[in-house]
Amino acid sequence: MLASGPHHPKGEENVKHFRHIGLALAATFVVSQAGAQELTGTLKNIKDTGAITLGFRDSSIPFSYLDDNQKPVGFAMDICYKIVEAVKKELKLDKLEVKLNPVTSATRIPLMANGTIDLECGSTTNNAERQKQVAFTNTHFLTASRYVFKKSSGLKSIDDLKGKAVVSTAGTTNIKQLTEANVAKGLGANIIPAKDHAEAFLMVETDRAVAFVMDDILLASLVAGSKSPGDYEVSKDAFSKPEPYGIMLRKDDPAFKKVVDAATAALYTSGEAEKIYNKWFTQKIPPKGLNLNTPISAELKNEFAKPTDSPNPDDYK
Question: Which are the contacts of 126, defined by CB distance < 8 A and separation ≥ 6?
C-alpha cells in the first residue's frame, strides 16, 4: 500500500472561506442594525415624519402669545426655535417642518403625554409634582405667584382676600397655591377657575373677581397691555418662593432630552439667551409696542451661567 500525505480537500478550504465571509456579513448586519436602532422615542418620530410639533400659548405675554397675524411669538418661542435648529442638526436633516399646536394650562400636559406635541413653549412652572408626569429642560425664567387687583379695591395683603371672589387659571400651580392658602389662612374666598389668563384678567377688569392669582411676570404683562394700566397693581406679598419656568418635553426620553438640554445650555452660557431676553423684556414688543421694563435678575443671570433643570426653588439664589 502506498503511504498517503496529509489530507486537505479543497472543499474544506472553501467551507472555511465562506464561514469567514458569513461571520463578517453577520457582524456588519449587527452593526447596521444597532445603528438603525440608535434613534428612539421623539427623535425617531421626528426623523420618520420630518416634522416637530411645538405647543404654544395664545396669551402668555411675553413668553408665548399670538401677534397681529395670529402667529405665535415670544421669549419661549424663540428658545424653542433654537432647539428645533439643534434637533435638525443632530438628525442631519436638510429640512424640518415645524408644526404649531395651541395648548392651555389644562391641556398642555395631556397633549405632551399623548404625543400630540414634542415641546411646550410657554410659561410652565417646573416643579417636583409635574416632573412625575413630564420632563423639563434648563430653566429659562424665574417667577413668583402673586395677585393683581384694582387699586380702588384697597387690598393690602393676602388676608384682605377674605370672603372675596378670587380668580386663577385652571390647571396651574397658582390655583393650587391659592386653594391651599385659602384653607391654611381660613380666607373663605370664592375661588373661580378661568380657562386662560386673558379670561381671568377680564374678570378683574369687569369686577367679577377682586383679584387674579398668577405668576408675577404674566400679571405685569396683562396690566401693561390693558386699557388702563394705571388702575392696577401687582401685590408685593406672594403665594410662593421664586419658581422656575422650563420648556416641557416628554418624560423617560433621555436621548431627546440630551439634545434639548445641550441646545439650551449652549444658548444660555453663550450670552445669546440674555440678548433674546432683552428683546422681550426690556424693549417694545408686538403687537401693541409694550415695554415690560423688566431687566434680567441676578438669579436668572446665575442660572444662565450654570444651567439646571432643577424644580427646587432653593437652587436659584
Answer: 136, 139, 243, 244, 245, 246, 248, 309, 310, 311
